[in-house]
Amino acid sequence: MTLFDDIERTELRVKYDSESEFDYHNISARPGMVAYREIAERWFANYPDAHKRDLRARYRSPAQSDHFAAFFELYLHQLLLACGYEVEVHPTIPRSRNRPDFFVRNQNGTQCYIEAVLAHAPSKEAEANARRMAIVYDRLNQMHSPNFFVGVHITGAPRTPPPGKALRQELEAWLETLDPDEISSLQAEGRRNEVPRFAWNHEGWSLEFEPLPKSPPNRGKEGVRPLGARVPEARWMNTAAEIRNAVKSKSKKYGRLPEPLVICVNSLDWTHDFDILNALLGDEQTVVSFDGDKVVGQQDARARNGLFGQDGHPQTQRVSAVAVARSLVPFTMGHVGPELFHHPWPYRALPRDFWPMPQWIANHEERRLESVAGKPAWSILALPEPWPTSLD
């Protein structure tokens, strides 16, 4: 059994918007895709035969959340093997029908359970909306636009399948009425607000198109996708809450286990150190003191919504540590890897020497987490350098 199909591949194009991650990886003949498939197949060959069918089905799923969850499990399994650990997939546990992803034992006899989870994985509704939009983008990239690229500002999402063919025809007809040299002059003179726009709406989805003139030598060239910059609607980000919710969804699933539990989170949104620390220790805040209407003092503090809780008020103690990877996907794994954050007050502590990669350890005297260097995951996995290899 293999992850990918045994087929002849000749496709050197870029990915279509409406194409799933797996479908594109499966058919592409670009060198970077070839290199990734070879690595993924080696990792899959190391996965236990009894569990291959389930992992393969999820990996090949058109649903982005299922695909990336399966990729993350495959990645973690190989990473743990590369650390020299014994790894059991979906072990049974006392008094529960639930099974963690892995049971791990190192050379010193230290054992722990490891559970993988995604943070900020798209919902089924969001994925359905994205597929509807992607079909339209693919339609637009097929339109005849010899003189212009097209930028698009996006608001909302379609509740029903949009008429992509009709939009393409309307947009083509509109672009034909425009003079690329005239538009270029307006932009060069700083009069961009005078550049005409084309607005289009469908069932809660609003698009505003902006013509972007091609340089004279590039006008009329065939095979160039016209859809240029896409500016999505601004949204509030709360990566810390996404990480908290992901860990909470797993933290009570198994009760109090006989060995430490490590939850590994792949945060698919943009993630910074402060997002992770806010998730684990509580959101940063400023506490202001008043005497009547007068401010008499202020100090930095943390809210009591952190996964680990605070000194004297610990929380989520069934979780011994949380490992966080930031947007770990096949073509970022050459510079992205999981960092381990030890719970300061767990029921079962995980020994520091268990984890050879970067980790954060509680310094109880100074009441903070301290960063400890370690080997990068891509070095342990022996990924080719550079990674990703060329996609061309």
N-end to C-end Cα span: 29 Å
Mean pLDDT, as a whole number? 92
Main beta sheet strand tally, sense and closure: 8 strands, mixed
**What's the overall geometry?**
globular
The fraction of residues in strands falls at 15-25%
Cα radius of gyration in angstroms: 25 Å
Structural class: alpha/beta
Structural account:
The chain is an alpha/beta fold and 392 residues long. The chain contains 10 helices and 16 strands. The strands form 4 sheets. It has an 8-stranded mixed beta sheet with strand order 1-2-3-8-13-14-15-16. It has a 4-stranded mixed beta sheet with strand order 5-6-4-7. A hairpin with a 2-residue loop joins strand 11 (309-310) and strand 12 (313-314). Helix 3 (49-59) runs antiparallel to helix 4 (64-82). The longest helix has 19 residues, at 64-82. The chain is globular. It starts with 20 loop residues before the first helix and ends in a 12-residue tail after the last helix. The model has no long low-confidence stretch (mean pLDDT 92).
